[in-house]
Amino acid sequence: MKIIESITEMQKLSQEMRLKGQSIGFVPTMGFLHEGHLTLINNARKENDVVVVSIFVNPLQFGPNEDFGSYPRDIERDQKLAQNAGVDVLFNPSTDGMYRGTTMSASIQVKERVDVLCGKKREGHFDGVATVVSKLFNIVLPHRAYFGMKDAQQVAVIHGLIEDFNIPVQLVPIETIREEDGLAKSSRNVYLSSQERNEAPVLYKSLVRGKQAIEEGERDPEKIKSMIIENITSETTAKIDYVDIYSYPELKPLTVISGKVIIALAIKFTKARLIDNISFDV
Length: 282
Description:
Number of domains: 2
CATH superfamily of the largest domain: HUPs
Radius of gyration: 20 Å
Distance between the termini: 44 Å
Number of helices: 9
Structural class: alpha/beta
Shape: globular
C-alpha cells in the first residue's frame, strides 16, 4: 500500500493509472476507520482495479460549536486497517496543502438539499462537504466514488454536485450497515446506556413499519410520520429531533407519497444523537 501526502504526487499517480486503463475506486473518509468504511472499501475492491482511500479531517465542514480539534485521529491505526482491507493507495494530505493555508479564493455554496433534515441546524456544513469532495475528485480522478447511505443527505448533496458540475465520476451509494437487531452501526452507539441500547432498534423497526404502510397503500406523509413518531415515543425514552419524508435525492417535501422517497429521522438519547433512514421506490 502506498501512502501519499502530496497532492501533486497523488494527481500524477492517478493520471498514470488512468493512462494504463486501470479503474480507480475512491473512498473519501475523515479517518478513524470503522466497519462502515471497511464495507465501502470492500465494495470498491470488488469493482475496480485500484482502490484509493483518503483520510482528511475537513475543517470547512465543522461549525463554530463543533470541535474540529477534538475529532478522533489515529493515522497509524487507520493505515493498518486500510492495508488489511486491500487498499492500494492511502491519501493523507495536510490542511495547509488542501487549502493553501487558511483561506481559499473560491469555494462552493450548496443552495438545495441542505435546508432540511440535519442540514437545518448545520449551516454551511454541506458547503464544506461539497468543496472538499470537489477537490478530492480533482486530485484522485476516480471512476467511482463510494459513500454510505447512513448519511443520505450527504449522498444527495454529492449527487447534485456531480450532476451540476458534470463531474465524470460514478456515485456508488452503499446501504447502511446494521447490527443484527437492525440498529445502524455508529461510533455514537457506545454512548448509549444499556436501556437505551435495548430501545434503539425501535428506530429502524419504525422506519420499516412506515415503509410497509406505504406499500399497503397509504400515501399521506403526515399519517406515516405520525405513526413513526407514536411508535418511537411509546417504545423509547428518546426525544425526537425530526421525522420527515421527502423525495430522493431532491429532498423536496411531498403532499402525496410517490416516486423515490426517503423516510429519515433523528432522535436524542441522554448522551447520543442517532440518525437513520430508509429509501425506496413507490
